[in-house]
Amino acid sequence: MKQHITAIALSLLAQGALACKIPPQAYDMRAYLRDADMPKVVVKAKVEEVTELLRQGGVVEQRAELATTSWWRGEATPNITMIANSGGMGGTSCEGVWDFSVKVGEEWLIVGVMNDGVVHPLPRLSTRIIDGRVPPQLRKLLGRSRSANS
């Protein structure tokens, strides 16, 4: 899976000043769900802890611990670790496209990729939950959820 994420990032970097081309699996839920090569994670979770680290080139890496309540894809566990970045790909047409960050106390529908036990969110598919409910159009597309405790 690391190769999948790396291939996407390298293809975007190679484009330089050209228009940013994002693979459909990164913004289209149907394409994401159809991709058989991707270790998918779709989970509703609350952010419990966030640690930020400044990386090379001004990139901020967030390591977040989340308590899960519902799962649609991936192995159902009560907690997940997520790593997200912001400030990446500066100076390219993809600047900001992959940026994602969360705050303690927020609830999210995290859509992403599992790599070595860590979730890497897809910013254009992940959705902040405001009222405790997953938007109906997404629930219909995802089907029934599983409890993290089952």
Describe it for me?
The structure is a single chain. The chain has about 150 residues and is an alpha+beta fold. It is about 15% helix and about 35% strand. It has helices at about 1-15, 30-35, 135-140; strands at about 40-55, 60-75, 80-85, 105-115, 120, 125-130, 145. Strands 1, 2, 3, 4, 5, 6 and 7 form a seven-stranded antiparallel β-sheet that branches. The chain is globular and about 40 Å long.
Give descriptors for this structure.
150 residues, alpha+beta, 7-stranded antiparallel sheet, globular
Q: Which SSEs are present, and which pair or pack?
A:
Elements: H1 2-14, H2 29-34, E1 40-54, E2 60-73, E3 79-86, E4 107-115, E5 118-121, E6 127-129, H3 136-142, E7 146-147
Antiparallel strand pairs: 1-2, 1-4, 2-3, 2-7, 4-5, 4-6
- Mean of all residue-level pLDDT scores: 85
Strand segment tally: 7
Globular, elongated, flat, extended or rod-shaped: what is the shape?
globular
- Biggest sheet features: 7 strands, antiparallel
Strand portion: 35-45%
Brief summary of the model shown:
This protein has helices at 2-14, 29-34, 136-142; strands at 40-54, 60-73, 79-86, 107-115, 118-121, 127-129, 146-147.
